[in-house]
Amino acid sequence: MPIQKALQIAREAELDLVEVSPTSDPPVCRVLDFGKFLYEKTKKEREAKKAQTKIEVKEIRLRPKTNEHHRGFKTRDARRWLLEGNKVKVTIRFRGREITYPEIALEDLKEIAEELVDVAIIEQSPNIEGRTMGMVLAPAKAGKKKVVETEKTAEPEKVTTTE
Fold it and tell me: Is residue 158, in this structure, part of any structural domain at all?
């Protein structure tokens, strides 16, 4: 349809001629109220923004001398956060001469990862930056967890013996 005819149709309807898809061949235009079109477009963008889930990164701070009991509290919090879908950053801070024994902190981080292996995967392996050693744990996929549960609940096959 010629442009002049399309503009005439839009004026008669007291609406605007809006080019919807300029890249296609031929370009696609629609007769509509442009103000309403922009309003609906921004409304859709706001709804899409609300639907997005933002993943928070929670942090657990420890020291190489943190004992088992206190570390248990921290790992319990980390488990709760991971089940909520947040990432967890585990940081061990060295003070004074503790930096000369990084293997103690590495062992602590490995133990925490082992305790949380059922709900988390290691996203960033333990690394040392200045006076801190840290790793990042991400929530494990829900699909893997369900598969493991179904395997546990499945009844074992009955074996019959014939004599």
Answer: no
